[in-house]
Design brief:
There is one protein chain. By secondary structure, the protein is an alpha/beta fold. It folds into two domains: 4-126 and 306-336, Medium-chain alcohol dehydrogenases, catalytic domain (Quinone Oxidoreductase, Chain A, domain 1); 130-280, NAD(P)-binding Rossmann-like Domain (Rossmann fold, 3-Layer(aba) Sandwich), CATH 3.40.50.720. It has helices at residues 130-142, 159-170, 183-191, 206-213, 227-233, 266-270, 287-299, 316-325, and strands at residues 4-10, 23-29, 38-46, 74-82, 92-96, 102-105, 111-113, 150-154, 175-180, 196-199, 218-223, 237-245, 274-277, 307-311, 332-336. α6 (266-270) links the parallel β12 (237-245) and β13 (274-277).
Length: 341
């Protein structure tokens, strides 16, 4: 096979909303495999809003990307060469490899063999990948959700928020409310089992709408949006409430000095609240068991999934930009890089 591949790299650090000029498609040589490594042909890769924090060089839980480095992302693909005892040629795997037609697994880090084909292959970078695992461990470990509790999830039509709301219902939450935008998203979320959906774009009183959707308040806030949303919900948190910080999609393209702060912090004292951030790879050892349970819920129809697909590696930059600019489309953004065969 040819020892080159195509990849998309950072062309220039982003200021505000990324543009096509932020990215560059280039051809790169593939190295010879070292002991323990494997070469994977990418079939699907994801575009993830959390990557935005790595494009500007600011503080994040992951190091900023340097100009010329491959844009980060998760992939599913087929092993086509292996010097690793962990995977063999022909295995279907999920791994963190970025936007590239081929990925070299270096012998350490995250790689997972796909254990069955009962669900679409792309599910393993969607509901059974980082978005689904973020929802799962955010509710199970961070929030320690109990049966009968009331849950609010923001960016509820996104892959994390939608999965979190449905998992909460499966865990016995008495009420699940989502915040999203637009009637199509609201209809899909209600079909997925949400008790109420608030369209934040059409309400001029978000706090009032949150109160009306759950008059008894909320035990758990699963936030994917940012400080302004959290601040609106704080007065509505019930005694002993927990706030899971999963993402900050409303703030990623805003300079740190211009991002809103929290004003309603007195409620942390009065309601004995706890707020905790989540990086899902802290729970990596629990992925397999969680994927088995969540996969069963998906197969049974108790958790619904939705994707937005684009074709070809060169489509990845615009698909990423659309995460922040196209508010009509919703679902896990998947790039079809190569054939499944």
């Amino acid at each position: 096979m040819a020892r080159t591949t195509r990849r998309i790299v950072l062309a220039a650090p982003a200021t505000g909303l990324p543009t096509p000029a932020t990215f560059r498609l280039e051809e790169a040589a593939l190295p010879a495999l070292q002991d323990g490594a494997a070469l994977v042909r990418t079939i699907y890769c994801s575009v993830d809003p959390g990557v935005r924090s790595r494009l500007s060089g600011g503080a994040s839980y992951a190091a900023p990307l340097r100009v010329g480095e491959t844009i980060d992302g998760f992939c599913v693909g087929e092993v086509i060469e292996s010097a690793s005892a962990r995977v063999a040629v022909g295995d279907r795997v999920a791994l963190g490899g970025g936007w590239a037609e081929h990925v070299v697994f270096p012998g350490r880090g995250y790689i997972q063999k796909i254990p069955h084909d009962r669900l679409p292959l792309s599910t393993w970078i969607g509901a059974l990948g980082v978005p689904g695992m973020t929802a799962w461990f955010g509710l199970k470990r961070v929030a320690a959700l109990k049966e009968g509790e009331r849950v609010l999830t923001t960016s509820a039509a996104g892959p994390v928020g939608a999965t979190a709301g449905q998992i909460a219902k499966a865990m016995g939450a008495s009420r699940v409310v989502g915040v999203a935008s637009g009637p199509e998203k609201a209809a899909w979320l209600r079909d997925a089992g949400f008790d109420a959906v608030i369209d934040y774009q059409t309400t001029d009183d978000l706090a009032g709408a949150l109160k009306a959707a759950s008059p008894d308040g909320y035990d758990v806030l699963f936030d994917n949006v940012g400080n302004a949303m959290i601040d609106s919900a704080l007065p509505l948190m019930r005694m002993g409430g927990r706030i899971v910080i999963s993402g900050q999609v409303a703030d990623y393209n805003t300079p740190p000095e211009a991002r809103p702060g929290l004003r309603n912090t007195a409620h942390f004292i009065a309601q004995r609240l706890r707020m905790e951030g989540l990086v899902v790879f802290d729970d990596l050892r629990g992925f397999a068991a969680a994927q088995e349970e969540l996969g069963a819920l998906i197969e049974a129809g108790a958790v619904k999934t939705r994707e937005v697909r684009v074709r070809g590696l060169e489509a990845a930059p615009q698909a990423f930009i659309d995460l922040f600019a196209d508010h009509a489309a919703f679902g896990r953004r998947i790039v079809e890089v190569g054939p499944e065969q």
